[in-house]
Amino acid sequence: MARVFNFSAGPAALPETVLKQAQAELLDFHGSGMSILEMSHRSVTYQRVIDHAEESLRSLMDISDEYAVLFFQGGATLQFAGVPMNLMYSGRAGYYISGHFAQAAWREASKYGEAVVLGSSEKSSFDHIPALGEGLDPVFSPVTWCAPDIDQSLDYAYICENNTIFGTEWHELPNTGAVPLVSDVSSCFLAKPVQMERYGLLYAGAQKNAGPAGVTMVIVRRDLISDGPALDYCPSYLDYGTQDAKGSMLNTPNTFGIYLCGLVFDWIAEQGGLAAMEKRNRSKASLIYGALDDSSLFRGTARPDSRSMMNATFTTGDAALDAEFVVEAEKHGLVGLKGHRLVGGMRASLYNAVPYEAVEELASFMQSFEADHSSACCSDRRSL
Amino acid sequence: MARVFNFSAGPAALPETVLKQAQAELLDFHGSGMSILEMSHRSVTYQRVIDHAEESLRSLMDISDEYAVLFFQGGATLQFAGVPMNLMYSGRAGYYISGHFAQAAWREASKYGEAVVLGSSEKSSFDHIPALGEGLDPVFSPVTWCAPDIDQSLDYAYICENNTIFGTEWHELPNTGAVPLVSDVSSCFLAKPVQMERYGLLYAGAQKNAGPAGVTMVIVRRDLISDGPALDYCPSYLDYGTQDAKGSMLNTPNTFGIYLCGLVFDWIAEQGGLAAMEKRNRSKASLIYGALDDSSLFRGTARPDSRSMMNATFTTGDAALDAEFVVEAEKHGLVGLKGHRLVGGMRASLYNAVPYEAVEELASFMQSFEADHSSACCSDRRSL
């Protein structure tokens, strides 16, 4: 079958050239007579693969040696525990609750110490990025602590920078002063240039913008992990300092996944790097949000000031019609558009590997769907 | 380049037919118009993939519903923490120290409770499987507790069933009475039929006998995990009960890795299942150990009664000659034979996907190497 346009939230579209290269060399990696899948992680050849992936990522994001670049397994969910276990030295950290995964990270952190809510947009169904102090009441936390400024004694302040499910994004990072900012960037990783110096730690599951499921990158300021993990019972596997000393190979890493991430990093560099990615991503987002704003059938579910460049969530307001749209779109080769069950409706994920043409195709399909349904829609409305 | 004979200890040889199938369908999985690498783990198509992998594994190993079959990431090393965090309800478990990874698991467990050493063969460089009570002194544990029988109040008794580095294997499982036996079977997984009812839990990194690096199977008696994890601070990701309830998809799993494991499971079934694997593995092991016993240049490093069917460790006794052997073997297309640094010498891993012809080739090469070096060797010895 011809390749479809894949709008999945993750695992998600990968660059076709990367897939073709992986396919071509799958049985014989660089003349080694074996697959990369069969190769010892301790071999000289594989060491080059992981070193190259790290260097390529450092180059893309302009990451200095002040930061460790670590390749983990277990997804963001494992890092929900890894972050507090490594960084909660004094036992208290702050969390902005901007969506499902931020909330899950906060709940997990609460196992390991005091996880203070800094702001939450849950009351408005996470349709925007919360302000400091917003929405705090005992529902969110046994500790209702908040303050006009971030308490400088916190071990870190945590955000989920792009909320995949709700289609919102932090357009300005919060000012945390000297408190290290920890950011889950899973669904906006490598989508635009970043100011690394603003972060104490950022991490990302690969399966959205960087590669296949099964690899998580943790990029962390080395001074934050030089004393060993904050908590004695942190599993050795999750000990950032140990993994840094071992070059992410305390044990066998996801060798194939890291290889594929390296190919994606190279592809991004060939496309012009993160600035070029941002330009293209902004075009795609403008196109889809423009289509939503122009539509009288569809509307975006995120507040315009919080709209994500990566995940556009929208609905007709009619669950049956939404379902019909998803089914019809799939027949037109536009797949993965069903929204998350927590929001309903539709979601178009516009990651780096989703081409502009895919979004054009989607916008055009939305128009024709609207044309086909506007009379029905209007007569329905009249009959109400 | 033609495919080499790959004797790597892991990641290791995979069946060529599996690699070819993965290659053929890498850009379009079953007519979906996308790669399996790009497919949502929540899609109907992927659900079939993971369900099939689980069913195929259950069928191969004859695993009843009394056991959960879980797919994790993070390797055996993460399970070194996962096992005690889930099962150490009373805070005390027993460990047999039969090699490097058993020792690492014991050290990790000591973070979470009292990890009692049941027996250790460290004093003889782990060249055999230890007996109960063997080798216990304060070097091994702050607790030197031992007893003629296994204390029935232990939460579990732990073994590493095949010691990849030292080339030894438990040929008879220890009698643990009612204490659940926990076994790290990473390097003997699927090599022969198992009596599941003997185990409370077994787990295996895939990258030896089951697939690529990045997948770990945990097979655990459901009654052991029905009360939630033993320790409150167990990361949600590592909570066996939660992962069982979520079908190993609390979060995005290593989708590609599990798919590939499923193909390997199917391949094993097509070959005749675990009984056929055992027959072939025994032939390969007999061939290599026979060659070692017949040799006056090479000798096995494991005690004959503890020899592993999967990893044959051997040496000439001369580090320079060992190094020469490894280099020369590689020129003959026999790769991955360098022993682990803790043992030195050579190691031939004879996993399921290593064909009998590879071992014939190796045995034949050992003979010719011996013929070429026997005069030099003897003259060297005379000159001493």
What can be said about this structure in brief?
In chain A, helix 1 (16-24) crosses helix 7 and helix 8 packs parallel to helix 10. Chain A is built from 10 helices and 14 strands.
Largest sheet of chain A: 7 strands, mixed
* Strands ordered across the widest β-sheet of chain A: 2-10-9-8-5-3-4
Number of strands of chain A: 14
Count of discrete alpha- or pi-helical segments spanning 4 or more residues of chain A: 10
Q: Would you give an account of this structure?
A:
- Two copies of one chain form a homodimer.
- The first copy, chain A, has 384 residues and is α/β, with parallel strands linked by helices.
- Chain A contains ten helices and 14 strands.
- Chain A has helices at 16-24, 44-61, 75-87, 100-109, 222-225, 240-245, 255-271, 273-294, 319-331, 356-383; strands at residues 5-6, 67-72, 92-97, 114-120, 157-160, 162-163, 168-169, 181-184, 201-205, 216-221, 299-300, 311-315, 334-335, 346-349.
- In chain A, the strands form four sheets. In chain A, strands 2-10-9-8-5-3-4 form a seven-stranded mixed β-sheet.
- Residues 140-146 and 378-384 of chain A have low confidence and may be disordered.
Salient structural properties:
globular, alpha/beta, disordered C terminus, 384 residues, 7-stranded mixed β-sheet, homodimer
